[in-house]
Amino acid sequence: MLSFPGEQLAAVRRYEAAGFRAWPAAAVHYDGTWAIRLTAGHPAKRLNSVNPLDRGDVANIAERVERAARRFYSYGRPLTFRVSPLAGPELSSWFDQQGWTRFDESLVMHLPLAQAQIEGAIDQIPLKDIGRFVSASLKVQGADASLRAGLSELIGAIEPPTGLFAMERAGEPLATMICVHDSDLVGLFEVITHAAERRQGHGRKLLLSALKWARLRGAGQAWLQVEAANEPALALYRSLGFTEVYRYHYRRPPPLSGA
């Protein structure tokens, strides 16, 4: 784990806190400064992971990991750590020594809205009907209908003002996204274009409309999370002016022998 100056760690803390508010887990427990987030109704890793929030909090790792594992087992979720720059290097070394898998590296990116090229963006009013948005989102993702209740509950639990954006053609959803306005920040989540409609500019148009909505509401900075392996999305965000702030990844223990 690389060292990070205090200024950068302060920025990481700000985005991590905004992410927790924008994507709220159903249950949050703390073991020291490890935030243990669990959500029975939705399988997303961000909602079902241990998030260490202080680089110096690395005492009794094995004992605390075992306690977290019991919580995850009770929810039927695989024990998963989300490792940001706020996690201490000793914790990453412990994972390595124990043979834990590292996967799904992601970037947190930001864009000052004063620099966003939104002059020609379409004025789009966010949907008010959560049910309609959830239907569109699941269809665009090609996700199972069993996620409907969990996604609806998740969106309903978001406390900051939220814009639910959907682009449709003849009643069929093409792209969807969630825009969470939290003080000066606006977070962009679940930015998805239907597989059959990609590379046609739908995602760009929807993003620009959402950024315009956010700037009109007084937000000063947009941010988002994207998997490092998602090259098309990265290319889109970079073309809009987003730049990397920091990265995080996930860790899971090796399977039990004989499992």
TrEMBL record:
One of its GO terms (molecular function) is acyltransferase activity. Residues 120-259 form the N-acetyltransferase domain. Keywords: Acyltransferase, Transferase. Its EC number is 2.3.1.-. This is GNAT family N-acetyltransferase.
